[in-house]
Amino acid sequence: MQLQRLYPRPGQTTPEQLISGLELGSRATGPRPYLVLNMVTSIDGRAALEGATRGLGGEADRLVFHHLRTQADALLVGAGTVRVERYGRATKSQELRAKREEEGLEPEPVTVIVSGRLNLPADLPILQEAEARVIVATAAQHELEGVAAQVQYLRTGDDLPLLLARLREEHGVRSVLCEGGPTLNSHLLAAGVVDELFHCTSPQIVGGGSEPAMVEGRSLLEPAKAELVWLYEAEGDLFARWRIR
Ligand SMILES: NC(=O)c1ccc[n+]([C@@H]2O[C@H](COP(=O)([O-])OP(=O)(O)OC[C@H]3O[C@@H](n4cnc5c(N)ncnc54)[C@H](OP(=O)(O)O)[C@@H]3O)[C@@H](O)[C@H]2O)c1
């Protein structure tokens, strides 16, 4: 699978090469980890097709998605996404685990699920993985029952900067890859804690009113301005890396 570089200058690479050695943790300054967001949308900006991401993005997007998971200490995701997409183990192969270790990271990221109400079905694949390390950030006081994963709770309510600061201080997390969804994205952007966006545009127009946009829910006081770092193309998918100012 080849990616054609369109910006800053023409060139060619593979998803494996492109998403390597990003050293996101070394960019962390201050009390919170460096945070990058990865999302795919249609040309008309819809972040789901028939309620899920399946069907948006092609093979290159799948590879970029999995290789991004080799670049961060922690994976951050909202409860709505975990429920719909049925999240399982974060690192899907021995090869990807080895890549993480070569990058100086643990073989598996810790998965941080944000769920205000702590409304997560215990039969989620990730919660049934005995080896999975999961942190649940919640406003609720109860614990999940019938789970096999190693689950810890951070009772940080809806305070995402506090959550990030505690991840850094108490769990040594220096880099976070957030995979959405739209509601969590709006809260992160409103709090000003998104450093970068990896965005794939899937070459299709979904239309309709029920599919969410990439950012939904909380309004931003002012638009978050971004600067283009790179732009690649593969089989019609466009891959942009944006640095949020
Ligand atoms: N295109 C893409 O790249 C992409 C990526 C991810 C998801 N999606 C799609 O997006 C849709 C899901 O959207 P969504 O907006 O429901 O997903 P979401 O943002 O993953 O989940 C929303 C839930 O997360 C919790 N939450 C979010 N922010 C919180 C905060 N600041 N404090 C406490 N809890 C917080 C709440 O959980 P509780 O309800 O448990 O309190 C809230 O109901 C699905 O269709 C999915 O396929 C697309």
How would you describe this protein?
- There is one protein chain.
- The protein has 245 residues and is of the alpha/beta class.
- It has one domain: Dihydrofolate Reductase, subunit A, CATH 3.40.430.10.
- It is 21% helix and 27% strand.
- The chain has six helices and eleven strands.
- It has helices spanning 15-18, 59-68, 79-85, 94-102, 160-171, 182-190; strands at 3-7, 11-13, 34-42, 74-78, 110-114, 133-137, 150-154, 175-178, 196-202, 226-234, 237-244.
- The protein has an eleven-stranded mixed β-sheet.
- The chain is globular, with a radius of gyration of 17 Å.
- The model has no long low-confidence stretch (mean pLDDT 96).
Brief synopsis:
The protein is an alpha/beta fold and 245 residues long. Helix content is 21%, strand content 27%.
Helix and strand arrangement:
Layout: E1 3-7, E2 11-13, H1 15-18, E3 34-42, H2 59-68, E4 74-78, H3 79-85, H4 94-102, E5 110-114, E6 133-137, E7 150-154, H5 160-171, E8 175-178, H6 182-190, E9 196-202, E10 226-234, E11 237-244
Parallel strand pairs: 3-8, 3-9, 4-5, 4-8, 5-6, 6-7
Antiparallel strand pairs: 1-2, 1-10, 9-11, 10-11
Bound molecules: NADP nicotinamide-adenine-dinucleotide phosphate.
NADP nicotinamide-adenine-dinucleotide phosphate is lined by residues 39-41, 47-48, 51-53, 56, 78-81, 84-85, 114-117, 119, 158, 160, 179-184, 187, 212, 216.
